[in-house]
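[recover] target loaded
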């Protein structure tokens, strides 16, 4: 399976906010440090093989516990990822849709600069010409990275790619 870390950094770096205020809202200032508090898939997976599936990649892998985004007052910022989950799937013999997972949390710090703008509670992050929208609600910043979670599965010699949306939630520190 490909590294989820690359997706995480790309998604983080493609989501942003700005220090501009719309003048009449009760919006929290985007400036400052935000910590990732949720990383959820559409479908529940039992990545830690404990018998209970969950949509929370953070809970299922114990990875991604210290990912941050820092928004500066000048419309720039930095997304920092400190780990990623290297996930391998194996199709359970005799089934067509049951998998066993092997997860390794890899410590690796990667910082990615970005630019951002804010219009009320809509935040737009720009990196390498790509824009990603996020929603600011109080001390929570949320965005959905469409088809950002993907896994390649070997199905009796054929590679099948499974994709789904992932939702990231950051909380202001």
């Amino acid at each position: 399976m490909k590294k989820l870390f690359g997706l995480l950094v790309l998604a983080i770096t493609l989501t942003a906010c700005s220090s501009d205020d719309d003048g009449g809202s009760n919006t929290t200032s985007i400036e400052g440090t935000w910590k990732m508090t949720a990383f959820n898939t559409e479908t529940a997976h039992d990545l830690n093989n404990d018998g209970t599936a969950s949509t929370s990649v953070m809970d299922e892998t114990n990875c991604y516990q210290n990912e941050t985004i820092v928004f500066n007052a000048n419309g720039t910022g930095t997304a920092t990822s400190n780990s990623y989950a290297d996930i391998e799937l194996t199709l359970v013999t005799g089934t067509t849709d049951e998998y066993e997972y092997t997860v390794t949390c890899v410590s690796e710090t990667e910082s990615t600069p970005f630019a951002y703008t804010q219009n009320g509670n809509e935040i737009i992050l720009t990196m390498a010409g790509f824009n990603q929208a996020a929603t600011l609600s109080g001390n929570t910043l949320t965005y959905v990275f469409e088809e950002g979670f993907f896994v390649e599965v070997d199905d009796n010699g054929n590679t099948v790619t499974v994709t789904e949306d992932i939702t990231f939630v950051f909380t202001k520190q």
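[recover] notes: The radius of gyration is 17 Å.
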